[in-house]
Amino acid sequence: MDLVTPGLGMIFWSTLFFLILLFVLGKFAWPAILTAVSARNESIRKALDAAEKAKEEMAQLKADNEKILAEARAERDALMKEAKLMKDKLIAEAKEKATEEARKLVKSARESIQTEKAAAINDMKIQMASISVDIAEKILRAKLEDSKAQQKLVSKLINEADLN
């Protein structure tokens, strides 16, 4: 049983060394350990405060970003609407201008056709008159080759002239 029960000397020296160790640790180690733990607690608290502040700043930045994005979308929509209106206006103006230009071209073409038609009719009249005179001249020559026929025609024309 000697192994299980310690001796009185062993208890005394173990207690003495424990008390000395406790005194040395209490005098030198515990203040340093407590200071380190306190500093560590303070740094953790500061880090948590900084993280909370950063989280709040991130939330504020996110809100600001959302606001800026909403403004940008609204501005983009306004610009797109304005551009669409401008496009529609330009297309309408171009169509109107093209229609007016087409009317002018059609009017000019009609006037040109009328002028050309009148000129062609006048030219045909002149040509018809010239051909008629040529034909009459040839007929008269053919009829008047004979002197009796000439005398007869002259007499007839004189008689007709007296009747009128």
Task: Write a concise synopsis of the structure shown.
The longest helix has 136 residues, at 8-143. This protein is mainly α and 164 residues long. It has helices at residues 8-143, 147-163.
Which tags fit this structure?
single chain, 164 residues, mainly alpha
Number of domains: 1
Shape: rod-shaped
Number of strand elements: 0
Q: Tell me the β content.
A: under 5%
Category by helix and strand content: mainly alpha
Average residue-wise pLDDT: 88
Number of helices: 2
Mind telling me the C-alpha Rg? 65 Å
Helix content: over 70%
Question: What letter string, H or E per element, gives the SSE order?
Answer: HH
Distance between termini?
188 Å
Describe the largest sheet: none
Task: Identify low-pLDDT runs.
Answer: none
Write structural notes for this entry.
Helices cover 93% and strands 0% of the residues. By secondary structure, it is an all-alpha fold. It has one domain (8-124). It is rod-shaped, with a radius of gyration of 65 Å. The chain starts with 7 loop residues before the first helix and ends with a helix. The mean pLDDT is 88.
Secondary structure layout plus pairing:
Layout: H1 8-143, H2 147-163
